[in-house]
Amino acid sequence: MTAICKRAWVHGSVQGVGFRYTTQHEARARGLNGYARNLDDGSVEVLACGEEKEVEALIAWLKAGGPRSARVDKVLTEPCVLQEQPAGFTTG
Predict the structure, then answer these.
(1) Residue 18 CA: distances (Å) to CA of 32, 41, 50, 66, 79
(2) Helix and strand tally (H, E) in the chain?
(3) Could you read off the pLDDT of 22-76 as tens digits, one per residue?
(4) Is position 38 annotated as part of the catalytic site?
(5) Rg (alpha carbons) of the chain, rounded to whole number
(6) How far apart are CA 16 and CA 38, in angstroms?
(7) Can 71 be counted among the known catalytic residues?
(8) Choosing from 20, 28, 68, 71, which is the catalytic residue?
(9) pLDDT tops 80 at residue 2
(10) Integer angstrom CA distances of residue 84 from 44, 48, 87
(11) Which helix (H) or strand (E) holds 53?
C-alpha cells in the first residue's frame, strides 16, 4: 500500500449544495483522511490522504462532478507532503 496526500481545488457551483458533506461521505467510504472546506472565492478545497488508489478514485469522483446537486467546472490538484496526516475526514 502506498500512502499519498493530494490537495484539490474544486470550482463551479459547489457551495451551498451539500458538496462538502457528500465529499466527506465518499472519502470516509474509501478510508481517507483529510478535509473539505469552503474558500472565500466560492470554491471548495479538498485534502485527501490515504492509499494512492483511493485518493485517485476520490479525485476522479470530484472531476466527474461530485454530488448531483453540484456543478463542477474545473478541479485543480497537486500532491502535498504533510508532517502529520490528519485523523479522519472533516468538513470545515
Answers:
(1) 19, 17, 23, 10, 25
(2) 2, 5
(3) 999 999 999 999 999 999 999 999 999 999 999 999 999 999 998 888 999 999 9
(4) yes
(5) 12
(6) 9
(7) no
(8) 20
(9) no
(10) 22, 13, 9
(11) helix 52-63
Give 32: exposed, middle or buried? Use CB within 10 Å, 0-12, 13-18, 19+.
buried
Does 1 have pLDDT greater than 70? Answer: no
85 against 68, higher pLDDT: 68
Q: Phi and psi for 3 in degrees, rounded to 5?
A: -95, 135
Choice among 7, 33, 38, 71 that is catalytic: 38
Show the CA angle centred on residue 68, arms to residues 50 and 5, nearest 5°.
Answer: 15
- Residue of 34, 51, 41, 47 whose CA lies nearest to 90: 34
